[in-house]
């Protein structure tokens, strides 16, 4: 087989056919899917969850992850935080001419492994090739379908006093990826937190009541995600700077570069807003999983009127947090 | 354009040094602090070490803060 | 030693320290019937005071006024426009600190130019600009040399590096500012009533404690050299109030661990070798004689202003009141555009966009609600 | 609002938020979707069809179409030829820094219009921005979900003698797009055939029996799609060169450039393999739609053993057709 | 590297002409056929008109083909 | 007139015409006890005979042998390797016809180089290469000038254009071939037994009918100038058999609508102005004296071979039998690699990849099954 992707691998002809056969079907297993324009799959619910994300991360391989693992975990997590059980995934590749096929294999293998681990099936795919200089290696879109199980889910019935929980340290992914780009000249003993959270979150939903909402604080970081929740549901939320779980190395890099961990992307963390009386149980459940071992309560809902997120500083003063605004983070998801 | 960050010198070369910032490493210029030694803490600004942190003064400052607090506490007790 | 350094943000120290400051401020108030007023000269101080919450915690007892210490903000509009015009030229790579990108020029921003395809690069480590020049021999690489005393030495390092490696396609567009001339301007103008200055720790690394003696000798005003961590800020303010209460003007070094009496002499040698005083135009102020540093004529080959000409028209007039904010005459939220027409996504003035700008500090870190 | 896309529009912060609000929700209508990581939608079947495609066409606007219209129609068609009724769509954008927001609006409006026309709902989306030079304007992934209606569909029970029908002239899309690129210096009075075929194909399935399979001959053209069918189901198929519907202008351009209309992409055509006794009915049904007015029988299944596609020349000789093999067509889908 | 395509000249400039190929238009060089006139058919190879089609000869060729066929048919009848 | 031209592919004419050819071929067979054998000199003929089905329809009655007429295929391996090596240089833009891209060099193909990032452009209209040069003044633009008499005039046009516009960064890597010397070689070698040649219509536009007289005068063999459409091919073959039956050697112009007696005189002037005869190496044959055309020395500035040196090693040996295919000694499917190790996606020899290659024609258009 060829060593590099050429435009002909994307023209739908013989080379496309071989690429699908020798790389994609080889990894994803299901040859039948390639025979039809659409995959035909069984569904066992009357309500499904649908989500889509494109992944354009640079570099495509980074400590403890790759664009392939990320593309599966990212979409699985969007389904999982929505309270759905991820069942099917599609993947669309846009590949730059000249991309090494060995790298593509590695990516596709990572996807297959992560899919297997999470229990989702990759049922449809597509490959396009663009000229050199019209992409940066490879971009992957994954679209996920999940099913809602009866009596399980997020209530959206927020109360004053509800606890805000984050399932682990923040900023690891963004910092690990930035460092892996090599441009900053920084060596960081931090790996990406990129992980599928569906098993852990399913456990939380199954064994507790009172979960109001769950979100994964990816692009824009914890602050942006919480601002979205506060605004969308008109809540006043407060988090405490002293309670934020941040690894000291992440802290150090942020100091050096002028970043704020609150705005750095995570790819294996969940925010859970839960009734106050259930928060300890949720923390206990989360901590049973390696991905949740650093779970903590970071704040609470303090009002239901303003649609604002506040940060309490170590000095006890409060300030408004807004969405990430116009800083130019490089591509980290 | 950010405030200086204290970093510990863990490897010294002629014009640069590898420093540790809370567990992460980076290389900084040391042209402005030629006398720096392994184990010293330096204040890094835009990739350059600008000053060496004087430990005894740093300690003094902390003690001063504590004195201020204690003074106040004892006053409050009075 | 890290343990010691960490104490500066230890809440168990900082919280009672804040109370101590409040207490001594109240004492001042009882004595003089008003709040003590200090100007933090430096934009990094402005940011740190806001971000750590010190400014809010003290807002009822201490009047902390932001000064002309954000290098981007004090750069006059024509100069900003010139840098943006510079980026429009063909075959150039512009290297810059990140916070220049969104600074509003009269017609556009550097970010607009970048989006339109110009090669404009944000560097974390400015010395990399020399490497960029070496790697792109057929392009002119120009660094936008904006900064105060902390940053200026790094510009000289870049020149030294380019000189050593004989790099012909590298130059700096110098538009630097010095602290002393602008402090003198403010004091001479007498617009703001101050009980002292919070003097910037990192600028002081370069200048040294003794360099501020003119404040005492000529203006009978105090200055306390202050670091940027919570406890450092609080203790600096504490000391400032103490001095004000004593009625004695003095320079106090509250950051002795990194600031010496005479400053960093190695840096002074670098500055002396490459630079010479020059007049600079300040936003909202105008030209202050000898208020900046430019390359000596023998380094003209590295001086972008000598190598390139740019055409800039009359700067566009806006309702931005940065000039007054810089001089400490109004607080950011006294500007009618603040948070409405002007916010970080769509800044009207540089004070809303620079990482050290007062309006940005206020918007990002001091709003408790909206 | 800004005139051009910047990296900050893709960092998940304030500008991303505004872009979603002012461009996407504005066009697609459903603001609720943006509040969750996944859309929650009702589904009324136990079997669904899932398909995904990325669109990287150049130019993004072309006669009678745009990447937006294409991205909806292309995925709708993959569902429709699978015998499913398209119901939901997701869209993932990868946008190049500097892309005009006015163009993005036009594209999104085209998508919304085509979705409305076909009756699908766009339920989830994602936007990523990459640096200038890391994409060519905009790439769009759409993923489609369709439902199978009971007793309707393709049988896959092929018989010797089954007719091969194409729903109209071939090569129009590819030639129109190539000409629109302007690089060839050719003016062609041909517009893209880009169209959603779901209504037409639904009609065929509802009113006839004996449809074996349907496919849309996009990338790789008619020949490549038929070769895929022949190989996948081990059929010997024969088509007649004289029966191929090719517009004379397409013929002319192919002669000039050395292309073969059999390998040129279509974006509004279906291939239908149907029992011989139903072929006239299918043709009649197709011709009731503007998209099907040139529908013709082009060949038949002549054996069930070899997995080959043959072309009968005007002289009566036969030759084997293979997949498009390694010619470097520019991006036309 | 393809066989010549016949194209009709619909606009003549000094060194180039716009030609029609079954309804599509393109521009070709006519340096090699300076005598070409509007309405002429030319044989285009790699963007250049190489020859002007002589209609009467073209007609003759077709007639010749028909003669060959007819001859054979009448032979077959015999 | 379009109606007349269209008749050449009208099945109502073509089908009976094919029967007429078969009939006269059978007559030949009856008379001589063997099939008549003709060589189509030109690669475009090979392709057209295969694509239209003429070759298959006649396969039992007429022996149609492909000759050395695919310009890419006859280019010797060292020359192919040189062009690929040329593309490896820095700061170059290589312009080429599309079918060069996948031609296997000893180590790689042009397509491999393009994928690896070299700027290699396929042009539909070769004269565009001059425009490319004009638009990229800091790059060397080199056109790969591969071709026979039909293409060579276009190369001279490009030189004329570059000369007129005074473009200094444009040149052509000339590796052209002429029909007459190779026909003479084949006839002199006497390897193939032929009853005549099908002479290529488009080459003949340039050369004219009379230029082939040497075939009759020196070799007593016939030649029929033939077009590329179905009826043209069939009637050309018909005429060839007729001549063979008659026992008389002659040149017959079966394409008079576009081919004149003396060829295109304007083109001759262009060729004379810029070009001069040169020796060329042919794949599977070796150097044939005066079998190509090169730029005259006064145009050295446009001659890439004079401007650039490339290093090529000894060509890699393969089992490819293109050399024999080109000389008409074996049919493509007699090569043991045909359709197995060698196919259009992974061609071993140029004959499998060029748009005019015999193996490609056979693979694409003459397989009825596999
Ligand atoms: S709020 Fe904006 S407009 Fe007002 S002074 Fe600050 S930067 Fe200028
Ligand atoms: S089939 Fe391939 S290897 Fe054999 S002669 Fe032809 S090109 Fe060469
Ligand atoms: Mg399809
Ligand atoms: Mg999503
Ligand atoms: Mg996501
Ligand atoms: Mg697809
Ligand atoms: Mg790239
Ligand atoms: Mg999410
Ligand atoms: Mg698809
Ligand atoms: Mg499709
Ligand atoms: Mg998303
Ligand atoms: Mg581009």
Automatic annotation (TrEMBL), chains A, D:
Span of domain PurM-like C-terminal: 159-309
Species name: Neobacillus novalis
Similarity remark: Belongs to the HypE family.
Biological processes annotated in GO: protein maturation
CDD domains in UniProt: HypE
SUPFAM superfamilies assigned: PurM C-terminal domain-like, PurM N-terminal domain-like
TM regions (residue ranges): none
Pfam families recorded: AIRS, AIRS_C
Name of the featured protein: Hydrogenase expression/formation protein HypE
Occurrences of domain PurM-like N-terminal (ranges): 37-147
Xref: Gene3D superfamilies: PurM-like C-terminal domain, PurM-like, N-terminal domain
TrEMBL record, chains B, E:
GO molecular function: carbon dioxide binding; iron ion binding
Tree of life domain: Bacteria
GO biological process, alphabetically ordered: protein maturation
InterPro entries the UniProt entry points to: Hydgase_assmbl_chp_CS (IPR019812), Hydrogenase_HupF/HypC (IPR001109)
UniProt family annotation: Belongs to the HupF/HypC family.
Protein name (record): HypC/HybG/HupF family hydrogenase formation chaperone
High-level lineage: Bacteria, Bacillati, Bacillota, Bacilli, Bacillales
TrEMBL record, chains C, F:
GO function term, MF aspect, one: carbon monoxide binding
BP terms from Gene Ontology: protein maturation
The entry's keywords: Iron, Metal-binding
One Pfam family, short name: HypD
Entries under InterPro entries matching the protein: Hyd_form_HypD (IPR002780), HypD_1 (IPR042243), HypD_2_sf (IPR042244)
Domain of life: Bacteria
Protein name: Hydrogenase formation protein HypD
Source organism per UniProt: Neobacillus novalis
Name of the encoding gene: hypD
């Amino acid at each position: 087989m060829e060593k590099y992707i050429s435009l002909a691998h994307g023209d739908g002809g013989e080379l496309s056919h071989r690429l699908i056969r020798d790389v994609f079907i080889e990894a994803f297993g299901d040859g039948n899917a390639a025979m039809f324009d659409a995959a035909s799959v069984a569904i066992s619910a009357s309500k499904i969850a649908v989500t889509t994300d494109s992944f354009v991360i640079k570099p495509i391989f980074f400590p403890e992850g790759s664009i392939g693992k990320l593309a599966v975990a990212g979409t699985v997590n969007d389904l999982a935080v929505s309270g759905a059980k991820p069942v099917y995934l599609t993947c669309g590749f846009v590949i730059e001419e000249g991309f090494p096929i060995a790298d593509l294999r590695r990516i596709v293998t990572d996807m297959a492994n992560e899919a297997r681990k999470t229990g989702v099936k990759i049922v449809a795919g597509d490959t396009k090739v663009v000229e050199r200089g019209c992409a940066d290696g490879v971009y992957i879109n994954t679209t996920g379908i999940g099913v809602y199980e009866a009596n399980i889910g997020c209530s959206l019935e927020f109360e004053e006093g509800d606890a805000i929980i984050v399932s682990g340290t923040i900023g690891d992914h963004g910092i690990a990826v930035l460092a892996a780009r090599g441009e900053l000249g920084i060596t960081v003993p931090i790996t990406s937190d990129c992980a599928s959270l569906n098993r852990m979150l399913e456990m939380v939903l199954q064994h507790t009541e009172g979960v109001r909402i769950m979100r994964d604080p990816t692009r824009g970081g914890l602050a942006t995600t919480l601002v979205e929740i506060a605004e969308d549901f008109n809540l006043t939320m407060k988090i405490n700077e002293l309670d934020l779980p941040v690894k000291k190395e992440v802290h150090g890099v942020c100091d050096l570069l002028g970043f704020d961990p609150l705005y750095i992307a995570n790819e294996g963390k969940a925010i859970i807003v839960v009734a106050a009386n259930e928060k300890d149980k949720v923390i206990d459940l989360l901590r049973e999983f390696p991905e949740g071992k650093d779970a903590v309560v970071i704040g609470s809902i303090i009002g239901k009127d303003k649609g604002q997120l506040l940060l309490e500083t170590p000095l006890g003063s409060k300030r408004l947090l807004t969405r990430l605004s116009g800083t130019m983070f490089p591509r980290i998801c | 354009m950010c405030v200086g960050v204290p970093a510990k010198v863990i490897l010294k070369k002629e014009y640069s040094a590898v420093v540790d910032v809370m567990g992460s490493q980076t290389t900084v210029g040391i042209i402005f602090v030629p006398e720096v030694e392994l184990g010293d803490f330096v204040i890094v600004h835009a990739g350059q070490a600008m000053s060496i942190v004087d430990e005894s003064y740093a300690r003094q400052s902390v003690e001063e803060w504590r004195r201020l607090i204690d003074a106040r506490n004892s006053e409050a007790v009075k | 030693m890290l343990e010691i350094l960490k104490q500066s943000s230890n809440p168990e120290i900082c919280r009672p320290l804040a109370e101590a400051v409040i207490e001594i401020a109240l004492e001042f108030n009882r004595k003089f019937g008003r709040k003590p007023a200090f100007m933090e000269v430096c934009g990094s101080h402005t940011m740190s005071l806001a971000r750590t919450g010190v400014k809010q915690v003290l807002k009822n007892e201490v009047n902390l006024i932001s000064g002309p210490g954000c290098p981007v903000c004090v750069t006059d509009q024509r100069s900003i426009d010139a840098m943006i015009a510079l980026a429009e030229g063909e075959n150039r790579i512009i290297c810059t600190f990140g916070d220049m990108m969104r600074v509003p020029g009269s017609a556009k921003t550097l970010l607009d130019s970048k989006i339109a395809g110009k090669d404009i690069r944000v560097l974390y480590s400015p010395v990399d600009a020399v490497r960029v020049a070496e790697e792109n021999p057929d392009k002119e690489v120009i660094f936008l040399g904006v900064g105060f005393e902390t940053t200026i030495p790094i510009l000289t390092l870049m020149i030294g590096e380019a000189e050593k490696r004989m790099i012909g396609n590298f130059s700096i567009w110098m538009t630097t500012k010095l602290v002393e001339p602008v402090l003198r301007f403010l004091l001479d103008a007498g617009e703001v009533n101050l009980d002292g200055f919070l003097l910037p720790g990192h600028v002081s690394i370069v200048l040294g404690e003794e360099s501020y003696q003119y404040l005492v000798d000529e203006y009978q005003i105090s200055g306390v050299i202050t670091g940027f961590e919570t406890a450092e800020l609080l203790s600096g303010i504490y000391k400032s109030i103490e001095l004000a209460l004593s009625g004695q003007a003095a320079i106090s070094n509250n950051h002795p661990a990194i600031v010496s009496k005479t400053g960093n002499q190695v840096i002074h040698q670098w500055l002396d070798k490459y630079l010479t005083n020059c007049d600079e135009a300040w936003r909202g102020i105008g030209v202050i004689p000898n208020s900046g540093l430019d390359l000596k004529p023998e380094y003209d080959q590295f001086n972008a202003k000598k190598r390139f000409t740019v055409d800039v028209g009359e700067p566009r007039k806006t309702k931005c009141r940065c000039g007054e904010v810089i001089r400490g005459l109004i607080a950011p939220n006294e500007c009618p555009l603040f948070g409405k027409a002007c916010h970080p996504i769509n800044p009207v003035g540089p004070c809303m966009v620079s990482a050290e700008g007062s309006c940005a500090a206020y918007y990002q870190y001091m709003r408790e609600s909206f």
